[in-house]
Design a protein that fits this description.
This protein is an alpha+beta fold. It is built from 14 helices and 23 strands. A hairpin with a 5-residue loop joins strand 22 and strand 23. The strands form seven sheets. It has a seven-stranded mixed β-sheet, sandwiched between helices. It has two domains: 253 residues, Bira Bifunctional Protein, Domain 2 (BirA Bifunctional Protein, domain 2, 2-Layer Sandwich), CATH 3.30.930; 94 residues, Anticodon-binding domain (Rossmann fold, 3-Layer(aba) Sandwich). The protein binds adenosine-5'-triphosphate. Adenosine-5'-triphosphate (ATP) binds next to strand 10, strand 13, strand 16 and helix 10.
């Protein structure tokens, strides 16, 4: 493999900044660690991933409904969930170079000798560090006013489960889907947007009858894998990782992660967890409210449901789709190499679907192109570009992963046909203007990555 043209995190970070996917937060002040801003192209990508997930969950399953719970929740929630007590990482500091590490991520030999992996200096004892951001609500900063920024979206779903059963007449098995921000005071934030202090999650909690949990657990593992397949993620880049006994959360019966091969190796993308009846049992205990399900179709049988959770990072998915799409391709002829950077996004994920490009600005081609673009923008996210040579403009669109470019030239004026240029193959076809929307829709539906 040509290493100069293989994918690295540096290339992804640089492309993201150059083309307006992702910027460092507060960059003019030197940046804020663990926080990133999504630019004009990045927000389109993020929204598309979110919409694809939302559609998959709510529109394509009869028994899943949505929710948008508040980030700020009653502090007792986090006692019930176990986060106040257990949501900690083991932390060590180097007394010499002041570097900070997660004790579970450094070499056990060095840890035993209390030796810094960076400078060889002495490490402090391991301390437990809670990852929740704690702040105060109201004017008094006392213990009674403590409030947390939620470290996961799941708890908002559990505390609303009864409301949703009652308001929407849900019957088990059913699920609740939610997308939203979560905050964790991560000790080490690195690898760009992979691990950040502020991020977004896409979580679905599926409530089932005890005893049916294993069946549904397997079902959701299949569904989640197929989601990534459907949106064109290369299967060889994905794998399952089952949690061993030491990794399994105290409440979990079984857990599998879908891992993706990022430039730094295979890492967790999403978790599918069998959380048993732990969550609702704890909330029953802490709130004093009966959270049992009453099965009216079965002689008013009562039980605390088991929960199968699918928990994916939205922002981590953005990085995954970027890494999966990134390609550098030699399109030169013979001994004259010519490299293009191309993001091979699935057209339903690509930030811009269609770019409209007049071959020249003059002779009314710009006006005609604007008019054609106006006919497309109701159906597709479009871009318009008339600056620079057509070759350069194609390359610019390749770099942000636009699957279709529509070019307007002199022939368009004569016979009302345009050129459609395909990102992946760079092939071009001539299409009558009034068939453009149908042709693009057909190409989107039948897309498969070569
Ligand atoms: P880790 O052990 O790596 O800290 P986790 O197992 O605690 O992660 P979960 O609590 O299962 O992660 O979170 C579910 C999903 O949320 C993860 O699969 C990941 O995609 C995303 N996620 C978790 N923490 C972060 C973070 N700090 N930044 C970005 N995404 C995150």
């Amino acid at each position: 493999m040509d290493t100069a043209h293989s994918i690295t995190m540096e290339k992804i970070v640089s492309l993201c900044k150059r083309r307006g996917f992702v910027f460092q937060s507060s960059e003019v002040y030197g940046g804020q660690a663990g926080a990133w801003d999504y630019g004009p192209i990045g927000i389109e990508l993020k929204n598309n991933i979110q919409r694809a997930w939302w559609k998959e969950m709510t529109q394509l399953h009869d028994n899943i409904v949505g929710l948008d719970a508040a980030i700020l929740m009653h502090p007792r929630v986090w006692e019930a969930s176990g986060h106040v007590e257990n949501f900690t990482d083991p932390l060590v500091d180097c007394k010499k170079c002041k570097a900070r590490f997660r004790a579970d991520q450094i070499d056990p030999g060095l840890l035993a000798q209390k030796k810094c992996p960076e400078c060889g200096g002495e490490l402090t004892d391991t301390r437990k560090f809670n990852l929740m951001f704690k702040t105060h609500i109201g004017p008094a900063e006392d213990t009674a006013s403590v409030i947390y920024l939620r470290p996961e979206t799941a708890q908002g779903i559990y505390v609303n489960y009864k409301n949703i059963i009652q308001s929407n007449r849900m019957k088990i098995p059913f699920g609740i889907a939610q997308v939203g921000k979560a905050f964790r005071n991560e000790i080490v934030t690195k690898n760009f947007i992979f691990r950040t202090c502020e991020f977004e999650q896409m979580e679905m909690q599926f409530f089932v009858k005890p005893g049916e949990d294993e069946k549904w657990f397997n079902y959701w593992r299949g569904e989640r894998w197929n989601f990534y397949k459907k949106y064109g993620v290369r299967q060889e880049k994905l794998r399952w990782h089952q949690h061993g006994p030491d990794e399994l959360a105290h409440y979990a019966k079984d857990a599998y992660d879908i891992e993706f091969e990022f430039p730094m190796g295979f890492r967790e993308l999403e978790g599918v967890h069998n959380r048993t009846n732990y969550d609702l049992t704890r909330h029953t205990e802490f709130s004093g409210k009966d959270l049992q399900y009453i099965d009216q179709d079965n002689g008013a049988e009562r039980y605390v449901p088991f929960i199968i959770e699918t928990s994916a990072g939205l922002t981590r998915n953005v990085l995954m789709f970027l890494c999966d799409a990134y390609d550098e391709e030699n399109v030169g002829a013979g001994d004259k190499p010519d490299w293009r950077t191309v993001l091979r996004f699935h057209p339903k994920i690509a930030p811009i679907t269609v770019a409209v490009l007049p071959l020249f600005k003059k002779d009314g081609l710009s006006e005609l192109a604007v008019d054609i673009r106006n006919g497309l923008r109701e159906s597709f996210m479009t871009d318009y570009d008339e600056g620079g040579s057509i070759g350069k403009r194609y390359r610019r669109q390749d770099e942000t992963g636009t699957p279709f470019c529509v070019t307007i030239d002199y022939q368009t004026k004569e016979d009302n046909t345009v050129t459609v240029r395909f990102r992946d193959s760079m092939e071009q076809i001539r299409v009558p203007r009034d068939e453009l929307t149908a042709v693009i829709n057909r190409e989107i539906s039948s897309y498969s990555r070569k």
